[in-house]
């Protein structure tokens, strides 16, 4: 168990390097969402949630502790919901980054290699998952230092039983649902277990899988978080990363393994 705990702790700096904050109010630095940087083949991407990217024109990414603001550029790909975003089980947003954005963002961030993406994930009934994102309530601008500071939410969790998917109007082949134990949330600032935050702002962050049976393995990106369930505040919902890779594969943007879980027309 000590070795497993050590593996979780050691994985956090790596995960943090791939994860960015997205905010849209330049005066107050309002935290609006989270994103993850990924490299597949020769292409560089920012993955997030579509409801975050619905305000893309207003979004900025802070680097150098918020002293510099990057307006990322490139080609935006996102799904159109069947009804509205609130009932959108897909909620996929991808930015195919342009060269200048890659150069600017590489000052502070790293890009996750495609070998760390796991499609066709079969959930396990074990605390093998990490949700790592930036809630608005744990983010603030320092007026005196003119910089931006955000404490990440780290949820070490497990996937729920398959019978819960129907209750939450989600499909297991497309979504992954994990628990949110708000009473027992790690807080990096206080270095203690505390009552967890309001999770507004973490949409677009990654659901990571940690293989506890292989201590040498790296964390795997298996989903992008997009919903804190209103009907059950102890549940967090992600879209499987398969949806992202399939959209890009179908459009001929990447050469990647096809998912076995579903298909897009």
Overall pLDDT metric:
91
Q: Which runs of at least 5 residues are low in confidence (pLDDT < 50)?
A: none
Give, in order, the helices and strands.
Answer: HEEEHEEEEHEEEEEHEEEEEEH
Helix-strand category: alpha+beta
CA radius of gyration: 17 Å
Helix content: 10-25%
Spatial gap, N to C terminus: 45 Å
Strand content: 25-35%
Shape: globular
Number of strands: 18
Total number of helical segments? 5
Most strands sheet: 6 strands, mixed
In short:
The protein is an alpha+beta fold and 265 residues long.
Describe this structure as you would to a colleague.
- It contains five helices and 18 strands.
- By secondary structure, the protein is an alpha+beta fold.
- Strands 1, 2, 3, 6, 7 and 8 form a six-stranded mixed sheet that branches.
- Strand 17 and strand 18 form a beta hairpin.
- The longest helix is centred in the first third of the chain and has 17 residues.
- It is globular.
- The mean pLDDT is 91.
Q: Tags for this entry?
A:
16% helix, alpha+beta, globular, single chain, 265 residues, 6-stranded antiparallel sheet
Can you lay out the helices and strands and say which pair or pack?
Elements: H1 2-18, E1 19-25, E2 30-40, E3 43-49, H2 50-53, E4 61-63, E5 68-70, E6 74-78, E7 92-97, H3 99-105, E8 112-113, E9 129-133, E10 139-142, E11 147-150, E12 153-157, H4 164-167, E13 175-179, E14 185-187, E15 192-194, E16 206-209, E17 220-228, E18 235-240, H5 241-250
Parallel strand pairs: 2-8
Antiparallel strand pairs: 1-2, 2-3, 3-7, 4-5, 6-7, 9-12, 9-16, 10-11, 13-18, 14-15, 16-17, 17-18
């Amino acid at each position: 168990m000590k070795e497993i705990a050590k593996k979780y702790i050691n994985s956090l700096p790596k995960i943090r390097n791939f994860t960015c904050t997205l905010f849209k109010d330049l005066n107050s630095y309002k935290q609006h969402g989270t994103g993850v940087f990924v490299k597949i083949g020769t292409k560089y991407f920012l993955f997030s949630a579509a409801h975050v990217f619905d305000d893309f024109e207003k979004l900025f990414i802070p680097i150098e502790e918020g002293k510099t603001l990057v307006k990322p550029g490139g080609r935006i790909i996102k799904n159109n919901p069947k009804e509205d975003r609130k009932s959108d089980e897909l909620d996929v947003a991808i930015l195919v980054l342009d060269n200048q954005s890659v150069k600017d963002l590489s000052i502070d961030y790293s890009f996750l290699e495609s070998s760390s993406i796991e499609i066709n994930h079969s959930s396990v009934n074990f605390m093998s998952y990490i949700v790592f994102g930036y809630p608005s309530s744990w983010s603030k601008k320092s007026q005196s230092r003119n910089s931006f500071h955000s404490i990440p939410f780290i949820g070490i969790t497990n996937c729920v039983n398959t019978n819960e998917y129907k209750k939450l109007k989600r499909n297991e082949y497309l979504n992954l649902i994990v628990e949110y134990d708000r009473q027992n949330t790690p807080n990096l600032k206080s270095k203690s277990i505390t009552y967890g935050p309001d999770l507004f702002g973490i949409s677009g962050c990654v659901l990571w899988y940690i293989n506890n049976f292989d201590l040498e393995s790296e964390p795997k990106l298996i989903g992008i978080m997009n919903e804190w369930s209103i009907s059950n505040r102890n549940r967090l919902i992600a879209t499987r990363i398969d949806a992202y890779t399939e959209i890009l594969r179908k459009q001929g943007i990447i050469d990647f393994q096809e998912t076995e879980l579903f298909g897009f027309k």
